[in-house]
């Protein structure tokens, strides 16, 4: 039973967190804050992950010390964020995020615009009203993310029955789901992200609220959407996340033009790209958002190019306009910073070079800084039956070949081209 006034204090004998699994730096910061008279706990994803015997991505803290007070205590501290003011303390290579306890925004007539900003859609764009520990619990998104851990006492503090949610493998919002999703529509994406990553269910009332509130994602600033998209698809279970986003009708608010092109009956390039990203993450290989954007926007950009060509435009111009438009239109939903757009365009531009295999440009193509990403993309396109497998095989072999073999492969290419040229001429004669 939820009693938001009295927390359940779970002693170390009744939970599975071992203090030795917690970052020493986080423990040191908590010790210092406590010695200075503040409350301080580990909170959120790290407590959840430790209880699930998973390795936390990072260690976040919550305290009643104000950001400026935290800053005055730690030399390597930076205050960041406007929507949420947070302190980042860097120790060694580790960054510990420290959030000051927050309270619910005040009623509208008492709002201080500097502290809180709520839009006409009910979205909270700034949320810097500070509160007590108990207030802080209620501002968090889900029961599983609202557990606090005190490393000195080795106790878990549970105000919202988060332990039961963990046991039931259930993502339940704190408070009314529709209200919480209206305040911050990104919470719907977070629900799906955690459900996919942890293999949890989303509570039925939250699922219905997602159906009702999904379109509010239109009002989330594209820059924040980019942060979230990266988290969704670089989590190591992107394919599952993508399927869940689609089944909850959320994907269309992230990549509307891609959604329009998806034909579930045929090989689906986005799904293949996401499976490929998962495999790379699992084998410790680097992943870049540009590769994903190149794959996700490929079908829309090709459809656009075809439409332009149908109006009589020459293919080069149609391609150039379609790529620029695709990136501009998508960026209305999920930000595509210039440096990302450049890489996406490079990966696309290399596709025709890879397909054509013009002998004199082979070495230049192999040395191109985006060759590897472009080759991986060509590989996926081959699996989607867009490309003759012989072409990608050729590029696979030439990468593995030594210099002498490479030159021989390029010579062979030249002679088949000449042969083809002669045949064509003869036929024309
Ligand atoms: P991850 O493993 O991805 O880091 P996390 O739960 O730690 O998961 P963060 O984005 O690091 O997620 O946020 C830390 C904590 O802050 C969350 O566990 C949650 O309690 C709270 N939080 C984050 N985003 C929101 C939000 N949009 N609304 C309410 N609470 C949030
Ligand atoms: Mg976290």
Strand order of the largest sheet: 1-10-9-2-3-6-5-4
Euclidean distance between termini CA atoms: 89 Å
The fourth-level CATH homologous superfamily of the largest domain is Beta Polymerase, domain 2
How large is the radius of gyration? 26 Å
CATH arch. level architecture of the largest domain: 2-Layer Sandwich
Q: Uncertain runs with pLDDT below 50, 5 residues or more?
A: none
Number of strands: 12
What is CATH's topology name of the largest domain?
Answer: Beta Polymerase, domain 2
Average pLDDT rating = 93
Fraction of residues in β-strands? 5-15%
Report helical residue fraction: 40-55%
Number of helices: 21
Largest sheet: 8 strands, mixed
Assign the CATH class of the largest domain. Answer: Alpha Beta
Q: Give the count of structural domains.
A: 2
Shape from CA axes? Answer: elongated
Q: Ligands bound here? A: adenosine-5'-triphosphate, magnesium ion
Folded structure, characterized:
The protein starts with 7 loop residues before the first strand and ends with a helix. A hairpin with a 5-residue loop joins strand 4 (77-80) and strand 5. The protein has helices at 24-35, 45-51, 67-73, 133-139, 162-168, 177-183, 186-198, 204-213, 222-233, 238-247, 251-254, 256-261, 269-282, 289-296, 298-310, 315-330, 338-356, 362-367, 371-383, 389-400, 403-428, and strands at residues 8-10, 40-43, 60-63, 77-80, 86-91, 94-100, 116-118, 124-127, 147-150, 155-158, 170-171, 201-202. The chain is built from 21 helices and twelve strands. The protein has 429 residues and is α+β, with helices and mostly antiparallel strands. The strands form three sheets. The chain has an eight-stranded mixed β-sheet, with helices on both faces. It has a two-stranded antiparallel sheet with strand order 7-8. The chain folds into two domains: 1-168, Beta Polymerase, domain 2 (2-Layer Sandwich), CATH 3.30.460.10; 289-428, cca-adding enzyme, domain 2. The chain is 53% helix and 11% strand. The structure holds adenosine-5'-triphosphate and magnesium ion. Adenosine-5'-triphosphate binds at residues 44-45, 57-58, 60, 140-141, 145-146, 184, 186-187. The site of adenosine-5'-triphosphate has 12 residues, from helix 7.
